[in-house]
Amino acid sequence: MSGGDARQISVRTKDRNSEERSEQLAPPLRRDQSDSITYRSFLRVRAYAVMTKPRVMELLLVTTVPTMILAHGGPPNLPLIVATLMGGAASSGSASAFNMYLDRDMDAQMRRTSGRPLVTGEVAPRSGLLFAWILAVSSTVWFWCLVNYLAAALSVCAILWYVVVYTILLKRRTEQNIVWGGIAGCFPVVIGWASATGTVSWPAVILFLVIFFWTPAHYWPLSVKYGEDYRRVGVPMLGAIHGIEHVAKRVIAYAVATATASLLLIPVAGMSWTYATVAVVGGAWFVGEGLRLQAAARRAEAAARPMRMFVVSNAYLALLFAAVAIDTLVKHRFS
Q: Do residue 213 and residue 188 come from a single domain?
């Protein structure tokens, strides 16, 4: 062996020895985050939160507080608002958890729902069902003790309607599933009114009708986007069994009904020009977007963009109920 080769071997040996010493002196690597108890607990809590369908709760927030303000003729006391929203969130979460438990078989086959906790195994079916019952019972007791018995009774009705009428009886059987099943989403306004007054009056009924007519016009465009999913599992959502032009015609009809119902609140609840302006302009926008969807579908279904109608429907409802609150608060301020 030459002297140069010996020196190279010596250098490599020193380098290896240096690396080994560095590894020995280096602090031990942190365990993977997924192995930590804290992170596993976070994932478990998140899985149960997903079961409550937080996005569905947005309807609760958008509609309940303005309804309570209208019912009270001004801002209700904050503890009552908080109690109503917390009870409503638990009630809504219960209905959603029952829905996920009952639909877990088809959720596993749908791209949109394949990541739900009962499908992925993050939550066991038995645990999910127990969670749904805990929320149902706790929300009822909460309303009964901290709000009033009428709000508690209406909360129970909302859960039963969503779970029994919509999920079990209608969803897999008829294209009218979202029309009549959507009544469950109308309950937050009557619960809010009952929480503020202990009764249900005509303005609450009109707001109930607004959401009743709004729901199909809001959801049917979404059913077009996920039509393949619904066809795969045999759920007859309108957008899965009919073309976009047919869906657009039905959306227009329900958008017109929604806008008309919103105008009824003006004489019945004594709304001023603030609400009236938003109701008229917003209603025209809502209906106009349905007409745009129909015109686009006639030209080329691929260019129809049904999700634009979905987004507009959300914005319209938010603006309408914001107008309910602002109109009432302004009148209260200057009365």
A: no
Give the pLDDT score at 90.
96
Dist. CA 2–CA 112, nearest whole Å: 69
Residues 113 and 62 in one domain: yes
In sequence order, what are the residues at sequence separation of 6 or more whose Cβ sits closer than 8 angstroms to the Cβ of residue 125? 101, 104, 118
10-residue mean pLDDT profile of the chain (335 residues): values are 46 43 42 66 90 85 94 95 96 96 95 93 96 98 97 98 97 95 95 97 97 96 93 94 93 98 97 97 97 88 81 96 97 83
Q: How many domains does the chain have?
A: 2
> Tokens standing for 43?
């994932």
Distances (CA, A) of 169 to 39, 163, 184: 39, 9, 14
Q: Which of 174, 38, 163, 40 is nearest to 103 (CA)?
A: 163
Domain around 324: 201-329
Q: Are 39 and 33 in contact (CB under 8 A)?
A: yes
190 CB neighbour count, 10 Å cutoff: 23
- pTM of the predicted structure, to 2 decimals: 0.86
| Coil, helix or strand at residue 236 | coil
Question: Which residue matches tokens 């490599």?
Answer: 12
The helix, strand and coil proportions of the chain, stated in percent and rounded to the nearest 5, come to: 85, 0, 15
Amino acid 298: pLDDT: 86
Joined tokens for residue 322: 């914001």
